[in-house]
């Protein structure tokens, strides 16, 4: 059991204290960051007052459907669905490395009964785990008996956990009624095209009505079924997230059309993800040299699709057996052998009490951000900068620079701090010493950022970052990210206006950001 769980202050569960807390939760706009359009966006974080109450209840503690929630709440996937009914040029489910994060990858497959036991074990150990998803390693709806048996067992033994599934959509229209029956109110559909000519470049074949179909015909069937399934789900009030893989030169420009198509059919959230195409994964795209997009290209496409459509920026392209907060994977702690030896005590009331404490922290974070944002009221400037943040979660600057495996990226302007993505990096600290080659890759990964926020950093990387025009900032160690980012930006503007700092534009082509350059 986690130490924090053991040290719950149980007075949060007393009637008066609990009523007061829940009133604050209902009132606070926990995800009120707005997109470039000025409209609230749940992917980048709408709050209680921005959404219908029934929608807010579905997303407020769902780490994939709320950017703010992903700092605080965990998810898990159970690998009960091995078969797949399509082939994608970016997928190879035979390859597995415990150190990687990639959809379709698992270390062990589970029966529904094993999955149910694992869910109880994880939820008892990680009380902020609120979401259970079936995402593979094949397609959940190509394995309907196993998928829905899993949901049946979990809904019976852990009724507070949200149920999700992720599908390619080919079989989706056949199972919408069953999805609704099991109260699966979050469904992700991977839609990479609405033009079969483009789809034929992504999908070699589908297995449909007991035969293999290839080429244009296969892609046409797939896109028709995907869009039909999306419409059927949204008509029933089921929240739908659409995943799209950005493949430069194949569908990158076309994804704007995909965005319009899924928006018109009621999709709640659109998640445009970068192609993963390392040759060692053995995928068609990896072996043919198809490159993935740069972080800047991905952000530009996401920005172009953002408006009325909610965009997800915090996806980690999770394994099909991932456990923990987004960006971490604790699945090695919960192998089948370990689970079968565990005594599981699923205490629903203690889970609720712990999550109430999480909400208190969440409210404090939002209130601190809003208070800092008020100090920017009336400021006028066209300057926008990116910053990179080293964090372990909870919305705080709480990771050592050398220990960071990824950086969260925020865009700062007079509107506030907006989460826009994350960048995976090579680990700089290697057993007590810094790896210079790794430092170079880290700098390249965040070279469009004006600053990097860290809990701690050594002198050598500080000098290298400054030489690259990146300001190493450790003054906000263990503070809330957004509050600290706004305070930094306010100071940055003051230094620019006084001439102490020169704001220069850096980046490639039309993808440019400010850099911290002392005068």
UniProtKB/TrEMBL annotation:
Annotated keywords: 4Fe-4S, Iron, Iron-sulfur, Lyase, Metal-binding, Nitrogen fixation, S-adenosyl-L-methionine
Domain Radical SAM core residues, every copy: 70-319
Keyword flag Lyase: yes
SUPFAM superfamilies with a match to the protein in the record: Nitrogenase accessory factor-like, Radical SAM enzymes
Cofactors required: [4Fe-4S] cluster
Involved pathway(s): Cofactor biosynthesis; Fe-Mo cofactor biosynthesis
Molecular function in Gene Ontology: 4 iron, 4 sulfur cluster binding; lyase activity; metal ion binding
Keyword match 4Fe-4S: yes
InterPro entries reported in the protein's UniProt record: Aldolase_TIM, Di-Nase_FeMo-co_biosynth, DiNase_FeMo-co_biosyn_sf, MoaA_NifB_PqqE_Fe-S-bd_CS, Nase_CF_NifB, NifB_C, rSAM, rSAM_sf
Superkingdom: Bacteria
NCBIfam families the UniProt entry points to: nifB (TIGR01290)
Membership in a protein family: Belongs to the radical SAM superfamily. NifB family.
Cited function: Involved in the biosynthesis of the iron-molybdenum cofactor (FeMo-co or M-cluster) found in the dinitrogenase enzyme of the nitrogenase complex in nitrogen-fixing microorganisms. NifB catalyzes the crucial step of radical SAM-dependent carbide insertion that occurs concomitant with the insertion of a 9th sulfur and the rearrangement/coupling of two [4Fe-4S] clusters into a [8Fe-9S-C] cluster, the precursor to the M-cluster.
Record-given protein name: FeMo cofactor biosynthesis protein NifB
């Amino acid at each position: 059991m986690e130490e924090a769980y053991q040290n719950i202050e149980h007075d949060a569960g007393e009637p008066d204290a609990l009523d007061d807390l829940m009133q604050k939760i209902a009132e606070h706009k926990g995800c009120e960051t707005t997109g470039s359009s000025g409209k609230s966006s749940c992917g980048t974080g709408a709050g209680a007052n921005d959404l219908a109450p029934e929608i807010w209840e579905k997303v407020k503690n769902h780490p994939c459907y709320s950017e703010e929630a992903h700092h605080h709440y965990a998810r898990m996937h159970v690998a009960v669905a091995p078969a797949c009914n399509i082939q994608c040029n970016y997928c190879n489910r035979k390859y597995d490395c415990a150190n990687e994060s990639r959809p379709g990858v698992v270390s062990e497959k589970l029966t529904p009964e094993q999955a149910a036991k694992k869910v109880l074990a994880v939820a008892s150990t990680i009380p902020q785990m609120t979401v259970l998803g079936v995402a593979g390693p094949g397609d959940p709806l190509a394995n309907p008996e196993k998928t829905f048996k899993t949901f049946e067992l979990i809904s019976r033994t852990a009724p507070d956990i949200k149920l999700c599934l992720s599908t390619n959509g080919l079989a989706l229209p056949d199972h919408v009624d069953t999805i609704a029956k099991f109260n699966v109110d979050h469904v992700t559909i991977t839609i990479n095209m609405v033009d079969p000519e483009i789809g034929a470049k992504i999908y070699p074949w589908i297995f449909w009505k007991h035969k293999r179909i290839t080429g244009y015909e296969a892609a046409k069937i797939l896109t028709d079924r995907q869009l039909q399934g999306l419409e059927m789900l949204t008509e029933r009030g089921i929240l739908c997230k659409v995943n799209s893989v950005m493949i430069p030169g194949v569908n990158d420009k076309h994804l704007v059309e995909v965005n319009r198509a899924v928006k018109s059919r009621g999709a709640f959230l659109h998640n445009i993800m970068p192609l993963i195409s390392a040759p060692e994964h053995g995928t068609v795209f990896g072996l043919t040299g198809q490159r993935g997009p740069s972080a800047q290209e991905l952000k530009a496409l996401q920005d172009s699709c953002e408006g009325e459509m909610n965009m997800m920026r915090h996806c980690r392209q999770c394994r099909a057996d991932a456990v923990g907060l987004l960006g971490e994977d604790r699945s090695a702690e919960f192998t089948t052998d370990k689970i079968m030896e565990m005594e599981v005590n699923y205490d629903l009331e203690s889970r609720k009490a712990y999550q109430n404490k999480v909400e208190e922290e969440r409210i404090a974070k939002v209130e601190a951000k809003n208070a800092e944002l008020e100090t920017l009221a009336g400021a006028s400037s066209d300057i926008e900068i990116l910053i990179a943040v080293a964090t372990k979660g909870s919305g705080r600057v709480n990771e050592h620079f050398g220990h960071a495996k990824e950086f969260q990226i925020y865009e700062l302007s007079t509107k506030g701090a907006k989460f826009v993505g994350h960048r995976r990096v090579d680990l700089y600290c290697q057993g007590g010493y810094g790896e210079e080659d790794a430092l170079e890759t880290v700098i390249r990964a965040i070279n469009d950022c004006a600053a990097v926020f860290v809990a701690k950093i050594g002198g050598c990387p500080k000098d290298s970052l400054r030489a690259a025009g990146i300001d190493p900032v450790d003054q906000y160690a263990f503070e809330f990210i957004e509050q600290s980012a706004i305070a930094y930006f306010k100071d940055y503007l003051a230094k620019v206006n006084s001439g102490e700092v020169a704001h220069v534009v850096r980046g490639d082509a039309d993808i440019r950001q400010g850099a911290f350059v002392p005068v």
